[in-house]
Design brief:
Layout: H1 7-35, H2 43-50, H3 55-61, H4 64-73, H5 89-99, H6 105-112, H7 117-139, H8 144-164, H9 172-191
Helix pairs in contact: 1-2, 1-4, 1-6, 3-4, 4-7, 5-9, 7-8, 8-9
């Protein structure tokens, strides 16, 4: 008997295909939600970009809202960066923002989807649970929550000005200078807690 015909190998192959399909749908959704927004992205658009039947979007995610939630949940948030050296946080954060090709994707998804109440609620939940709350806890006293909000404003403003509504020219030496300033500004807010 050929082992590739066994029930276990067929089940494993279906699982791999299922995972591959789910990943392709999520990749397509992140691309479209971060370039078109929630309202201007249809389930068929996502399915077409993913190369799958549109019925599979409903099968895996239930609805377009469920797909948007899954695309946002897929983003790891800030927690991985909180594991590093606190004294290098400003540099590490700017490396994450500047050196990752899709760093602005979650922000773009949130901004471009703000006009839809369901997508906006998901975005605000993501911001609170994956960024502000863990960051505030990590920052600690004094006023960890306030400092987390200030950092979020700083980083979001930078990403908007660099990637989403680009100020020209934020390249070369000018970008390097702004990056150093952002590292210093971030680190200064982090270090406010060290003085107490």
């Amino acid at each position: 008997m050929d082992r590739s015909d066994s029930p276990d190998s067929k089940k494993a192959m279906r699982q791999r295909d299922s995972e591959r399909t789910r990943t392709a749908i999520l990749d397509a959704a992140q691309t479209l939600f971060s370039t078109r927004g929630f309202s201007n992205t249809g389930v068929r658009d996502v399915a077409d970009l993913a190369g799958v039947n549109s019925a599979l979007v409903g099968r895996y995610f239930g609805s377009k809202e469920g797909l948007f939630r899954a695309a946002m949940e897929r983003v790891s948030g800030i927690s991985p960066l909180l594991q590093g050296d606190r004294r290098r946080f400003g540099a590490d954060m700017m490396a994450a923002l500047c050196d990752s090709p899709d760093a602005s994707s979650p922000l773009a998804m949130m901004i471009l989807s703000a006009t839809d109440p369901a997508a906006h609620a998901v975005s605000m939940e993501f911001l609170e649970t994956k960024v502000l709350t863990p960051l505030a806890r990590w920052l600690g006293a004094p006023d960890g929550k306030g400092r987390a909000v200030r950092l979020s404003i700083l980083w979001n403003g930078f990403l908007i000005s660099w990637k989403l509504l680009p100020l020209q020219p934020l390249t070369g030496a000018r970008l390097a200078s702004i990056r150093r300033w952002m590292e210093d500004a971030t680190q200064a807010i982090v270090d406010e807690g060290s003085a107490s």
